[in-house]
Design goal:
The protein is mainly β. The chain has five helices and 31 strands. The protein has a 22-stranded antiparallel beta barrel. The longest helix is centred in the N-terminal third of the chain and has 23 residues. The protein is globular. The chain starts with a helix and ends with a strand.
Length: about 625
């Protein structure tokens, strides 16, 4: 039985057999559960009390544009740049306000998912489907005071759907360009003191050439992904809960040898897997004291293999294995209606190992035996919200790393109304990023004397409501990065690398303005956003793959209750890339629509890159031309 057959059998069994089982569990409906607005302070906080810039992408917005991956959901939003190296399933990076992709901490339901085996401990957004996502929260600027290492430039927290009320059964099938077939199934609900959710996603696509067709590459590189996610929440009484989550991703990729001319490779393949486990117990020892204890495990496993073929008579093989385990204890003291004090501590241990072999230029191998690092942290935060609307947040954190020692970060912010419907906010914070396992311990080029990368940044903004239906926001930001880890070539010869190592030798600076305007005009919704960005390194050169100008629009039109139409467009300006290349500006236009056939059945369709624009997000790598997809979804 093939992987596709197993995937669709699993989805079918979930829909066919869990549906009556879920219905049997439910005895009565539950009250509506208030939606959590943000988690910028690790507490349920009204957005008006958040002093920094936060962007929230709801499940409704994700479905409106029919974004099938988190990368697609984030594309075209203010302050966010997406860089994908090919079509479906190929490496996808997110850059927040000009920061490097390694400067972003990524979490799912508060559990860190960055890959410890990656040389820069980043997260690949290519494989994460949106089927079970309730919303995505993007926090800009240094966030290490609450979240420690990796949150040097921002945090992306992906919050999944939970079971509430009567059982809900959802299924969706979609097919389209590049011989793509996608399916999703989910069961969610609540019975008494137990809420549950289970979802499965599968995608199988012939794909496009990972190496750009603009350079003459034509061989398509396929992709297949099967993902499972489940969650269970137990109501223990007196406000106490126990939440348990599990998520697995199993992806198979066809790759190309490189970007640019001659990049096609007929038999380069890669496998990627991830397993995420998390549990959190929350209790109220007293009326004002909330105590939360969490444990999590994050496992990554990747293998790439390129065997000899008529085009390239050599072997290339890479293996990466990494995992992190974290425990944390958080105390929230609700001292008054206005004041909440948070005291937390956490400990994280990460391990990584890798092997590399190539005989392209003669046999060469490199191996990183399993190495580990540990970091312990303690943080304190005071959140004050006055009846007048004034909100203050102050925080400080101390971390102790097993290799480079101690690091202290802090953050202070204010949000205050300046007139009815208008609010001013400002925050200053610092952040740090611990060196990755590979950077510290690789026997060929690692450096155990590396210290932390550091950041400090301002975020100042103004938000206003123009009447009841129009909202506008304007944000200015400035972030400086110091002690950045970069490659140091001892002899200065770019053709050799075996005499070099990682060093804390680089700096960077980003500054810019983000703006947005949303207008809800009854049957029509109009959204406009823009970003102006300036970046520079220690030599005064602009950072690669960061456009100075980016604009986006979103229009939704609902002529009847059964029909919904939407379009989104994004303009991305010129930007520099590796090899002294300048990537051209481009404009993308996407369409999506749905038609409700009944209360339970809906037809869906979308067109990506309507104008069939030829462009590149990463130099030498392909992007989809005009692509059409259609399907059906049902919910019971």
């Amino acid at each position: 039985m093939t992987r596709s057959m197993r995937a669709y059998l699993t989805i079918f069994l979930m829909t066919a057999f869990l549906s009556p089982a879920a219905a049997a569990l439910s005895q009565s409906s539950t009250d509506d559960v208030p939606e959590v607005v943000v988690t910028a302070t690790r507490l349920e906080t009204p957005v008006d009390e958040v002093s920094g810039t936060i962007l929230v992408i709801s499940a409704g917005e994700i479905e409106e544009k029919q974004a099938r991956t988190v990368a697609d959901a984030l594309r075209g939003l203010p302050g966010i740049d997406l860089v994908s190296q090919g079509g479906p399933g190929k490496s996808s990076s997110v850059l927040l306000r000009g920061g490097n992709t390694r400067f972003t901490l990524v979490m799912i339901d508060g559990v860190e998912v960055n890959d410890p085996s990656n040389p820069e401990r980043t997260f690949d957004f290519a494989h994460l489907a949106t089927g079970d996502i309730e919303r995505i929260e993007v926090l800009f600027g240094p966030q290490s005071t609450l979240y420690g290492s990796d949150a040097i430039g921002g945090v992306i927290n992906i919050i999944t759907k939970k079971g509430t009320g009567r059982p809900t059964i959802a299924a969706e099938v979609e097919a389209g360009s590049h011989k793509t077939l996608r399916a999703h199934a989910a069961v969610r609900g609540r019975s008494g003191k137990v809420s549950y959710s289970l979802s499965a996603d599968h995608v199988d696509s012939e794909g496009i050439s990972a190496a750009s067709a603009l350079d003459g590459n034509r061989e398509p590189d396929g992709y297949e992904n099967f993902s499972l996610a489940g969650g269970l929440t137990l109501d223990l009484g007196r406000g106490a809960t126990l939440r348990m989550d599990v998520r697995s991703i199993d992806a198979e990729n066809e790759l190309d040898h490189a970007g640019g001319p001659g990049g096609d490779d007929p038999n380069f393949k890669g496998d990627a897997g991830q397993l995420l486990l998390g549990a959190r117990l929350t209790v109220f020892p007293t009326a004002i004291w909330e105590l939360s204890a969490g444990v999590s495990k994050n496992v990554h496993d990747r293998h790439d293999l390129n065997e000899p073929d008529p085009v390239r008579d050599f072997t290339l093989e890479l293996d990466f294995k990494g995992q992190s385990e974290k425990v944390e204890l958080v105390n929230n003291l609700y001292l008054s209606d206005s004041s909440t004090l948070t005291l937390g501590m956490d400990s994280e241990r990460e391990t990584g190992e890798s092997t590399f072999y190539s005989d392209e230029f003669g046999p060469f191998s490199s191996s990183l035996p399993e190495e580990s690092a540990r970091i312990d942290g303690i943080f304190l935060q005071e959140q004050y919200a006055a009846r007048s609307g004034l909100a203050l947040t102050l925080g400080v954190r101390g971390d102790d790393h097993s290799d480079f020692g101690r690091e202290t970060t802090y953050r202070a912010g204010i949000s205050v109304p300046v007139s009815p419907g208008t609010r001013f906010r400002m925050v200053y914070g610092t952040g740090f990023r611990a060196p990755a396992i590979d950077q510290l311990f690789n026997p060929d080029y690692g450096n155990p004397d590396l210290t932390a990368e550091r950041s400090r940044g301002w975020d100042v903004g103004l938000e206003t409501a123009i009447g009841k239906n129009v909202d506008a926001s304007l944000s200015w930001h400035l972030t400086k990065y110091d002690d950045l880890i970069a490659w140091f070539d001892a002899d200065g010869d770019p053709n050799t690398w075996d005499d070099g190592s990682y060093e804390n030798i680089s700096t960077a600076r980003t500054k810019g303005v983000d703006l947005s305007l949303d207008a809800n005009l009854g049957a029509v919704f109009l959204g406009i956003n823009g970003s102006l960005l300036r970046t520079g390194d220690d030599h005064g050169e602009e950072l690669l793959r960061r456009p100075e100008t980016r604009w986006g629009t979103r229009i939704r039109y609902e002529p009847t209750e059964r029909i919904a139409l939407s379009t989104d467009a994004v303009y991305v300006g010129q930007r520099k890339d590796w090899g002294n290349v300048t990537l051209g500006s481009y404009t993308l236009v996407n369409l999506a629509g749905s038609f409700s056939m009944s209360g339970h059945l809906e037809l869906i369709g979308r067109v990506r890159n309507l104008l069939d624009k030829a462009y590149e997000e990463a130099g030498g790598y392909g992007t989809e031309g005009r692509s059409v997809y259609a399907g059906v979804k049902a919910e019971l």
